[in-house]
């Protein structure tokens, strides 16, 4: 009993340390974003700043960049992308879980093959720009990431194989249910944990994505997501700082820009929605990870 109690105490201490390592950087990030820029430069990052200021957020929302509009684009992109991505992933994963599916081995191999090889950036760009013609459209943000991730498909397949009893589906077939009805009314409700897990993966991927907008949106800056907009703001600030000596009146403009604290504020603005949503799906996320990876 004594050894078991010591082990539990040790385990709790380790988990507390790990939790603090995950939470404290976020707390420091939030505090730094509300720290006066000159104080931050002079004293560095601190949990108890000498002077607080919300000017970094004021600069972000009033500097001529439509943060609210970019938020709308990101929210729309995440909702549509997550819905379509989940639909494709769950349908393919469910189909691959069926041993009687014709060509099941070949399809599974093709899905797994995409985890090892891809076409490369240049061929992918030419394909989406010239063949599909999605450059400078909303589809440029959606389609390149819509093709289901092989890892997600294999996780869903594993969950259906290991966690959905065949007896339930066979009983549904005997009662006259079609494959579609068995999937929608039986398999899918029981797969709520893995659906929430994959949905979180896809949603975070769409919310954090800035590469598609950076590559394909060369003219339509009005379609920038929040990540693209914040990235452009950082590039503009860096450009002004690096070329201040050759630009007239640049020093006066730079003096009004919270060059350090604004980066912290941008990080908070970008990550805040994910931090808010995650607690609501945490239980299903953990369960989906543990059950989805039991069997191959």
Number of helices: 15
CA radius of gyration is 24 Å
According to CATH, the homologous superfamily is MetI-like
The SSE string, one letter per element, is HHHHHHHHHHHHHHH
Indicate the mean pLDDT: 81
Report the uncertain regions. 292-296
- Provide the CATH topology: MetI-like fold
Shape: globular
How many distinct domains? 1
The helix content, as a percent range, equals: over 70%
Class derived from helix and strand content: mainly alpha
Please state the second-level CATH architecture: Orthogonal Bundle
- CATH top level is Mainly Alpha
Ends distance: 38 Å
Topology overview:
Elements lengths: L1 H32 L3 H7 L11 H8 L4 H30 L7 H10 L7 H11 L7 H4 L7 H14 L2 H9 L4 H12 L1 H17 L2 H6 L9 H17 L7 H6 L5 H32 L4
Helix pairs in contact: 1-15, 3-15, 4-8, 4-11, 4-13, 5-8, 8-11, 8-15, 9-10, 11-15, 13-15
What does this 3D model show about the protein?
It is a single chain. The chain is mostly helical and 296 residues long. It has a single domain (60-292), classed as MetI-like (MetI-like fold), CATH 1.10.3720. Helix content is 73%, strand content 0%. α4 crosses α13 (226-242) and α8 packs parallel to α15. The longest helix has 32 residues, at 2-33. The radius of gyration is 24 Å and the shape is globular. The chain starts with a helix and ends with a helix. Residues 292-296 have low confidence and may be disordered.
């Amino acid at each position: 009993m004594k050894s078991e109690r010591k082990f539990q105490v040790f385990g709790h201490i380790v988990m507390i340390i790990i939790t603090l390592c995950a939470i404290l950087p976020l707390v420091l990030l939030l505090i730094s974003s509300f720290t006066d820029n000159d104080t931050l430069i002079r004293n560095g990052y601190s949990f108890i700043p000498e002077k607080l200021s919300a000017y970094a957020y004021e600069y972000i929302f009033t500097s001529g960049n439509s943060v609210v509009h970019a938020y709308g684009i990101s929210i729309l992109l995440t909702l549509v992308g997550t819905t379509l991505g989940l639909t494709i992933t769950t349908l393919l994963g469910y189909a691959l879980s069926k041993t009687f599916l014709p060509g099941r081995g070949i399809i599974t191999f093709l899905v797994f093959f995409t985890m090892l090889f891809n076409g490369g950036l240049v061929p992918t760009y030419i394909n989406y720009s010239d063949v599909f013609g999605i450059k400078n459209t909303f589809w440029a943000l959606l389609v390149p990431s819509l093709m289901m991730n092989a890892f997600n498909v294999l996780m869903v397949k594993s969950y259906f194989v290991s966690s959905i009893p065949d007896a339930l589906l066979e009983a549904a077939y005997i009662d006259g249910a079609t494959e579609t009805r068995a999937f929608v009314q039986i398999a899918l409700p029981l797969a709520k944990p893995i659906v929430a897990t994959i949905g979180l993966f896809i949603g975070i991927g769409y919310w954090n994505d800035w590469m598609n907008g950076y590559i394909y949106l060369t003219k339509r800056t009005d379609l920038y997501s929040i990540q693209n907009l914040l990235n452009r703001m950082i590039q503009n600030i860096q450009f002004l700082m690096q070329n201040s000596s050759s630009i007239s009146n640049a020093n006066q403009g730079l003096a009004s820009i919270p060059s350090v604290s604004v980066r912290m504020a941008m990080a908070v603005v970008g990550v805040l929605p994910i931090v808010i949503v995650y607690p609501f799906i945490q239980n299903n996320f953990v369960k989906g990870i543990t059950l989805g990876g039991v069997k191959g």
